[in-house]
């Protein structure tokens, strides 16, 4: 049997016999001639009926059961998986890729039910209920190819720099970020918590002498919100590195990773992004603007919007306003907001030597939405304990975490970045539901 060819490779082949496999996307029955649009993971091609259907092979029990003896092309239901053999023909008039295949045989591998639970205009909940069908759409397929390219570019940069990839446990004995948004699960006779972040364990790698590390893995937040950017489980991109002078070193690495990721996506998928999403992907210039939070609030105020609480983080409207400002002033989609007040940062963020009210930390905003938090961490145990007490925490409760700092620790820092948010903003999608393989929210645990 001839070897299966991916549809995207057909145009480059010479005319002649080919075999393709995929699912039926459309059937156009024109009485004397029938057309099928067949799609596989790489693209779509038009098939033209020029032959007979293959009878099921009695030697092959699967085909015996599944191939209806009476199938005709017009009976091929949308979604049916088939293997087709035929003659490849280049034909400029074929809009779909300039090639078509004259069918010789179609083998029905598995038939689809005739009803199609998702339509192009189905709402997001229906689409998520039938996510596997929704993912057959080329736009959705592209999201995950973009994700693969983006992560590969980040990994390549980390690996070139000698960073070590780690996998940290998601079952924890205590909270990993804050007491809020914590999932508790039964754990034999006791209880456990789902990791909200690999924060403590990526810092442990610093005490372990690993230098630079990274992790791409799940994070869980019992966040009862229904916004476009919150999930109860998301993929967190985390990195941490030793021997930094300040959070500036973390921001530099962060920029390099973003630029590497976007450059790779633009190179590999730029055209498709334009075609399927109308997105003209911009690779930002380095350095990204850095604006202290207090200054950012002033800028936003001068644009006519006042962030409600002076001692709080930017709110979503504030983030949108500062994004509009950097777009106008610097022509970029990215901005680091820096120098967060210690009252709104976790105890492990290092304070600014000159103004201990401020932390050596930042948020990265992409197109008006926060995608990351990063910081230099406090590595001196006495200071760290004092900062924990300052927050009303009992250092003894931090148990094993504080032990990491008792046997020597280099200066270090890092960041966490939500992968699904980055993709949502990069692909100009309305929600992370579109850029998460299987979204998890307060109302969604299925499929
Ligand atoms: P933070 O809590 O800001 O920081 O989280 C880092 C990034 O993770 C993403 N994120 C989310 N994405 C989807 N749904 C959620 N519910 C959700 N919560 C967070 C965001 C956010 O910017 N340990 C620190 C990071 C560090 O300092 O290294 C942390 O977890 O994109």
Automatic annotation (TrEMBL):
Its EC number is 6.1.1.12. GO terms for molecular function: aspartate-tRNA ligase activity; ATP binding; RNA binding. It is found in: Cytoplasm. ATP binds at residues 370, 418-421. GO terms for biological process: aspartyl-tRNA aminoacylation. Signal peptide: none annotated. The keyword Aminoacyl-tRNA synthetase applies. It comes from the Bacteria. SUPFAM superfamilies: Class II aaRS and biotin synthetases (SSF55681), Nucleic acid-binding proteins (SSF50249). InterPro entries: Aa-tRNA-synt_II, aa-tRNA-synth_II, aa-tRNA-synth_II/BPL/LPL, Asp-tRNA_synthase_2, Asp/Asn-tRNA-synth_IIb, NA-bd_OB-fold, NA-bd_OB_tRNA. Its main location: cytoplasm. Keywords: Aminoacyl-tRNA synthetase, ATP-binding, Cytoplasm, Ligase, Nucleotide-binding, Protein biosynthesis. PROSITE patterns: AA_TRNA_LIGASE_II (PS50862). L-aspartate binds at residues 177, 221, 373, 377. The keyword Nucleotide-binding applies. It catalyses: tRNA(Asp) + L-aspartate + ATP = L-aspartyl-tRNA(Asp) + AMP + diphosphate. GO terms for cellular component: aminoacyl-tRNA synthetase multienzyme complex; cytosol. It holds the Pfam family tRNA-synt_2. Residues 199-202 are annotated as: Aspartate. Residues 144-447 form the Aminoacyl-transfer RNA synthetases class-II family profile domain. Homodimer. Catalyzes the attachment of L-aspartate to tRNA(Asp) in a two-step reaction: L-aspartate is first activated by ATP to form Asp-AMP and then transferred to the acceptor end of tRNA(Asp). Belongs to the class-II aminoacyl-tRNA synthetase family. Type 2 subfamily. This is Aspartate--tRNA ligase. It comes from Leucobacter komagatae. The gene is aspS.
